[in-house]
């Protein structure tokens, strides 16, 4: 199952990238320059993940060449090299697949490389795929309900984002002592849960934006503030420096508008209950107003 995770991640990444390119060409051909520009703008935050990939590459002691910089400028760094320092200094989707095939997915090096892939892909999905999903979903709901290409692009972005969260959860599950790779049925249930959770929140915000325009930022802002203060009250110790700790809570609070990511060890039932209570209020408020 461990080898199937990067294989499916690579497939969804290719499908999502292809659909995004089709959406860009679709808007350009139809002369919808506003939506064309906004779709292009959604690509910009993804360079943060590409920059992190280069920094991790340098941390391995390898000076990035011109060809590697070009790949990252084209946002193909995740295909070529992702991750923190690994045993071989080269963590790629292809390396994970090849190592998993050789070792049967049980080697520690495969687990380290899989973690690199999952972490960097999750970062890219939250920074790039999520804004693209919101934009294309708004186009389908409020502008062009019959738009096939934006609809397909939104659907693949939703599935890719959900799978990025599932693959991250799968990796954290493998890190626990004595835990084996979960069966396919468990992975499927996680994927359905993440897809439904993301889909309902995106749909609620899009419908609210259609009816009340920029007031959607007020609703999302209240949700973001509640989540950020709640995270601060938990005293998470992932980041030690006070300024970076506040920034981390603010960024994760924005993520919590759409999905829950466990950042603390130990039982998380109470934290999940609080997250769903606030999220349910936000969805109901956005839907009923």
Keywords:
75% helix; 0% strand
Secondary structure layout plus pairing:
Layout: H1 4-29, H2 33-41, H3 47-59, H4 66-73, H5 77-80, H6 93-103, H7 108-143, H8 148-175, H9 184-212, H10 216-233, H11 242-255, H12 269-288
Helix pairs in contact: 1-2, 1-8, 3-7, 6-7, 7-8, 7-9, 8-9, 9-12, 10-11, 10-12
Number of strands: 0
Number of folding domains?
A: 2
End-to-end span in angstroms?
44 Å
- Count of DSSP helices? 12
Cα-atom radius of gyration: 19 Å
**Share in helix:** over 70%
Tell me what the structure shows.
By secondary structure, the chain is mainly α. The protein has two domains: 3-209, no CATH class; 213-288, no CATH class. The chain is 75% helix and 0% strand. It is built from twelve helices and no strands. The chain has helices spanning 4-29, 33-41, 47-59, 66-73, 77-80, 93-103, 108-143, 148-175, 184-212, 216-233, 242-255, 269-288. Helix 1 runs antiparallel to helix 8 (148-175) and helix 10 packs across helix 11 (242-255). The chain is globular, with a radius of gyration of 19 Å. The chain starts with a helix and ends with a helix. Pfam families: XK-related. It is a multi-pass membrane protein. InterPro entries: XK-rel, XK-related_scramblase. Belongs to the XK family. Keywords: Cell membrane, Membrane, Transmembrane, Transmembrane helix.
